[in-house]
Design goal:
Elements: H1 8-32, E1 39-44, E2 48-53, H2 55-79, H3 84-111
Antiparallel strand pairs: 1-2
Length: about 110
């Protein structure tokens, strides 16, 4: 069992971040599964839609977020006894990053 899961603060942030990521995966799967058209990935109020993609781009965003979660989890576990504050910062930053990824996925899905 990883060391950081024994600490309630780091465990709370990493598990919450992972659950948010799972919600993002499920939300994207439910709403984008039947869509075969181009998706608007970026929308600018001045120029309008200027970056398009497909379903794979949404999954690439989520897979990248999962990889970042895994890297931060391993780094926080390695630094826990040496620099506990760094572990806390990695846990909190990872949680905030997952929230931002969920917001981005929700915005992309709501535009389309």
């Amino acid at each position: 069992m990883p060391i950081i899961l024994k600490d309630k603060y780091t465990a709370l942030f990493f598990i919450s971040g992972f659950l948010i990521l799972i919600v993002g995966f499920s939300f994207a799967y439910v709403n984008i599964l039947e869509n075969t058209n181009l998706l608007v990935i970026h929308f600018d109020s001045f120029r309008g839609a200027d970056f398009f993609g497909d379903r794979r781009d949404i999954s690439d965003i989520l897979i990248t977020a999962l990889i970042i979660w895994l890297i931060n989890f391993v780094l926080a576990n390695e630094f826990y006894y040496k620099e506990r504050l760094l572990s806390y910062l990695l846990a909190g930053g990872t949680f905030l990053f997952m929230v931002l990824i969920l917001i981005a996925i929700r915005v992309i899905i709501s535009i389309n």
